[in-house]
Design brief:
The chain contains 19 helices and no strands. It is mainly α and 311 residues long. It is elongated, with a radius of gyration of 33 Å.
Amino acid sequence: MLEVALCASTVATAGGSVRTQGVAPLSRRRTHFMTIRAVTWIVAVLLVAGLPAPAFGQVKRRPPAADLQSAEEKLKSTDAGRILEGLAEVKANPRAAPTAVALVEEILRRGATADVAEAAIETLGAAGAASSSAVIRPYARHRLMDLRHAAILALASTKGPEAALAFREGLRQSDAFVREASAEGLGRIGASDAVGDLFLALDRGVSKAGPAIGGLCGPAECLKLAGQLGPQGGGALARGLDPVFFRASALPDETLVAIAGQLRNLHTMEASAYLASVLSRWPKKGSQKVRNALAGEDAAISKPQGAGGKP
């Protein structure tokens, strides 16, 4: 920085020497101005240098996979206690190395005691690798309830086609927890091709099938859902249709208007209360057409006025 200042001073005082070479001399005011500019530039550089790195828009890199060499050695052990210690270490590191995840998967493949198997399933769920779904899936049908429940919950994190298959199978299990978690899981992983299975589950009383359908359905399926949930009223309406009305990527206005009309035509207090609730939460920048339908104004506007249906 000091060298820059000296260089600027030399340039400023070089007017006399340059003049001898036939170049027009710099005035005293010009020299003073150049000196001020040099100092200002130096101050600006110092200020910028003191700014934190994020101000420059640097991209934050993800931390490298955790070094779990000690845990990996424990996972290779035949002692259940050491294996459990290794599993705990891997589970505590969300960025577990693929080698550690593979060792945990191998524990489930070769079979283990119930406590080790349950800990391994939970560890794979925490790691969330899609490759783990295939090895977890059989445990969703295990005879031991704790293992079934651990598996069906872990699959919601590992995701993938194997998880979707396990959830679709789970909708038909006798275990109520597995049925409900399977419906919720299908919604979480975005399995829109499972809407038909979810409607069947809804008919069989799986309550979480409604919200799952609400987050996945297309226009026609959403209308069908409103038709099934409308008579139920109460919390079923809000749980199932809130995902329809308040999606990040909104459904067509025509679909939402039709659903609002369908519910209003039920002429029940619960349906009317739900429409009022949606209206109170409708975004300020949301569709005015849908807002009118929620308020019932569309029905009044569409009715012909006067004789002969003329306005």
